[in-house]
Amino acid sequence: MTNTHELNGNSKKIVMSGIRPTGFLHLGNYFGAIRNYVRLQDEFECYFMVADLHSLTTHPDTKGLRANVHRVLAENIACGLDPEKSAIYCQSHIYQTGELYLYLNMLAYKGELEKTVTFKEKARMSPDNVNAGLLTYPVLQAADILLHRATYIPVGKDQEQHLEMARTYVNRFNHRYGNIFPEPQAFNFSEQLIKVPSLDGTGKMSKSENQMATLYLADDDETIMKKVMKAKTDSGPSEGNAQKPDYIQNLFGLMHLVSGEQTVSHFETAFDNCTIRYGDMKKQLGEDMIKFISPIRQRATDILLDEKYLQNVMVAGAAKASKSAQQTMEIVRIAMGLNYF
Ligand code: AMP
User: Fold this and answer.
1) What's the gap in Å between 273 CA and the centre of ligand 1?
2) Which of 11, 69, 88, 312 can pair with 317 through a Cys bridge, CB separation 3.0 to 4.6 Å?
């Protein structure tokens, strides 16, 4: 089984991932996903999409969709994604997605889908809107990936189970219809997949929940500092080399992401010898966050003003992604015996 795009004579590995346009992007999106996209695009054939169809499973009101799609595109580009190197496109522009989703649905069983952690969580949060699209979310995601026969899927830790399900569908499809799809795997440049925790020490940073505890790429400097300074701490360790409580470990985790090594080790030492002042640590973290986020915010603001440019990015991205999707679907239809001429 090969996991490269053979059809167009290209031997590069294929990378695919997506982000839902359900709100402002945050530090979790950056470190869990976008940072890896940017590094991968120089070496691999990359497909990155704004997952607008996925967002419909939980956000049926489409009034803000256009603005959100533009924002996700602009913020990704502001983070360093390059439309010349990667196909950057909108999920709904690739019509083959619906077709492959349909076929894969026949290989996905209700009982398994109902056990998916993200489904159970979302169903609990919106009990009045437990729709079939929500249930089959992992099938749609598998279709997005398999359309390009991608193998590297840069995602955060929350997507691990979905990737496992995608591999299950690949194996079922290949077993029934012949070896067509490679197995996709979650990818992160560091050894482990990342979960960026929220500032209050509970759960993860997220587009829609827990907004005061999430650092958005669009937050202004004052807001960033305010959120960081409000992060939960305590009166400090009372004995040397103590174990860090979760919420303190989270602050150190965030510091690792944006501060220099010397800064982190200064505060690690201060923690170990009980001289740490969390106020100082948070102030330093706030300043380093501002240094990290504010150039991205400024670039995204400029890009958002240029609608024509964003349209061009979407059109060019859709052309590249459709070409790859069309090639895959021709193979899939033949493999499945859906060729009657
Ligand atoms: P979403 O915002 O749910 O559409 O997710 C887009 C990408 O960001 C996916 O690859 C997620 O795994 C990743 N992601 C979202 N939140 C976090 C987080 N708090 N930490 C790490 N990765 C995240």
Assistant:
1) 35
2) 88
